[in-house]
Amino acid sequence: xxxxxxxxxxxxxxxxxxxxxxxxxxxxxxxxxxxxxxxxxxxxxxxxxxxxxxxxxxxxxxxxxxxxxxxxxxxxxxxxxxxxxxxxxxxxxxxxxxxxxxxxxxxxxxxxxxxxxxxxxxxxxxxxxxxxxxxxxxxxxxxxxxxxxxxxxxxxxxxxxxxxxxxxxxxxxxxxxxxxx
Length: 181
Fold this sequence. Notes:
Elements (H helix, E strand, L loop, with lengths): L1 H24 L16 E7 L2 E6 L3 E5 L7 E2 L7 E7 L2 E6 L4 E4 L7 E2 L7 E7 L2 E6 L3 E3 L5 E5 L2 E2 L3 E7 L2 E6 L3 E5 L1
Antiparallel strand pairs: 1-2, 2-3, 3-4, 5-6, 6-7, 7-8, 9-10, 10-11, 11-12, 12-13, 14-15, 15-16
């Protein structure tokens, strides 16, 4: 009886492996190359409603209104855009050497914020706060004047960040830090 139970359990296990393999094989993503944006590496993507925004190396921000079939370069061009973040109708772009730009009209026009002349590699939004990670430290809005630190240590070399609820997680070159509001 024990031998039969063991054989039955093994048979069920093999069926589960077969089913899992079959399911995984059918869930592979199908990628298709789009028509642009052309001219550089894409460092960041963000979505707002029907608009997709792409931050590029040396060519600024592109916008697609048709799921990436075609792309239009926005007036924020001839600049490297490392990061994009969207909050409501506000689109923020973190750039190489020129800080953060803001568009309130889907990328039709851009304004440089008070956080300027810095390289901003990452942006994250939590509530009404915008966090900007730079090469040397992290800043928090509303006017990008407050420097963030963790237990007295400067948050430096911020390479990526994201928000989850009221938490901001910043990935740095040397270590990872979770900031809680």
